[in-house]
Amino acid sequence: MSTSRFPLTELADLPPDLRERIEPIVSKSGFVPNIFRALGHRPNELRAFLDYHDVLMDQPGPLSKAERELVVVASSGANRCIYCVVAHGAILRVRSKDSHLSDHVATNPAGANLDGRQRAIVDLSLALTRTPELFADSDMARARSAGLTDVEIWDIGAITAFFAASNRLAHLTAVAPNDEFYSMGR
User: Fold this and answer.
1) Does the pLDDT value for residue 178 go beyond 50?
2) In angstroms, rounded to a whole number, what is the distance separating the alpha carbons of residues 99 and 105?
3) What's the rounded Cα separation, in Å, for the pair 71 and 85?
4) Is the dihedral of CA 156, 162, 165, 169 positive or negative?
5) Using one digit for the tens of pLDDT, what is the confidence trace for 89-115?
């Protein structure tokens, strides 16, 4: 199976600032995620991708890191993005300490065993993913009535939007998930 439709960049071939950003990930995980290698042949775009990713996924905020990954897995499952489902499903398994959650949310979110807060997060993300043109005040009202704050709703929406773009890039490149992701958190 091909790893990508576009050139893959090795870590050593990236500009120094990008190597410095990715090396801690490699040190922690033991591998370079293929999406970084696929985007690496366009360094400015990789920088922008990493900057926005880090703001949405790593900055302190009201959503836990596991809840942020829940948004990614739900939206990526709806977008049928195998790369993001596998990679972020692994991260969700680790962060939630639940080896089944990501698989259920990615494949059958309506049937997934979620608490009320998780259900509201997944439902909001799916409303924005599946039929964004139909997103309405009623979707906001449901999220608020489930206890989500406007800050949390914004974060869920921003993560959903960012990963819609990420999913499209993964589809365009046909980048394969690293084998290491499949066993993480199991």
Assistant:
1) yes
2) 12
3) 11
4) negative
5) 999 999 999 999 999 999 999 999 999
d(CA 68, CA 63): 6
- What separation in angstroms does the CA of 132 have from each of 5, 30, 160, 178? 29, 37, 10, 30
* Cβ neighbours around 1 below 10 Å, total: 4
Which of 125, 186, 169 is closest to 33 using CA atoms?
Answer: 169
Would you list the DSSP string of 54-105? Answer: HHHHHS--SS-HHHHHHHHHHHHHHTT-HHHHHHHHHHHHHHHT-TTHHHHH
Residue with tokens 């997944």: 122
Task: Give the integer Cα–Cα distance in Å for 17 and 89.
Answer: 28
Query: Could you tell me if 124 and 148 are in contact, meaning their C-beta atoms sit under 8 angstroms apart?
Result: yes
